[in-house]
Amino acid sequence: MFCQSVKAALLAGLIAIAPLAAYAAEKEPKATLDVKDEDIRVVLQSLKEQCGVRNLLIDNDVSGKATFYLHDVPCTAAFDIVARTMSLAYEIEPNSVVNVRLRR
């Protein structure tokens, strides 16, 4: 009985915050990429500018060419897609710093 009431309370809480999450996603900056065989560093620089990232650190080992067509994608999703596609990892650090490196 206790377990069911806890589950119900958690579900009610999730339902209550769902509109807030949707609202936050609407307010997040969006990026558009339409590139073919572009250097990954140029792609990351474009995301930096579109997403309002002040400092982008790209490890020396990051290289390659990429093709992306993304239209009005939230910036976190765009960084995730680019990183996953190119086998990269990134960390968002304080003071608007994004650190990109090869995934290990």
Strand tally is 5
| CATH T-level fold name | Phage tail protein beta-alpha-beta fold
Q: Classify the oligomer.
A: single chain
Return the CATH class: Alpha Beta
Q: Order of strands in the sheet with the most strands?
A: 2-5-4
Give the SSE order as H and E letters. Answer: HEHEEHEE
Return the structural class.
alpha+beta
Taken together, the total number of domains comes to 1
Strand percentage:
25-35%
| Overall outline | globular
* Overall average residue pLDDT: 85
Number of helices: 3
Q: Which CATH architecture would you pick? A: 3-Layer(bab) Sandwich
**Helical content (DSSP H or I, runs of 4+):** 40-55%
Account of the 3D structure:
The protein has 104 residues and is of the alpha+beta class. It has a single domain, classed as Phage tail protein beta-alpha-beta fold (3-Layer(bab) Sandwich). The chain is 47% helix and 35% strand. The chain contains three helices and five strands. The strands form two sheets. Strands 2-5-4 form a three-stranded mixed β-sheet, covered by helices on one side. A two-stranded antiparallel sheet has the order 1-3. α2 packs antiparallel against α3. The protein is globular and about 55 Å long. The chain starts with a helix and ends with a strand. About 5% of the residues have low confidence.
What's the gist of this structure?
The protein has 104 residues and is α+β, with helices and mostly antiparallel strands. Helix content is 47%, strand content 35%.
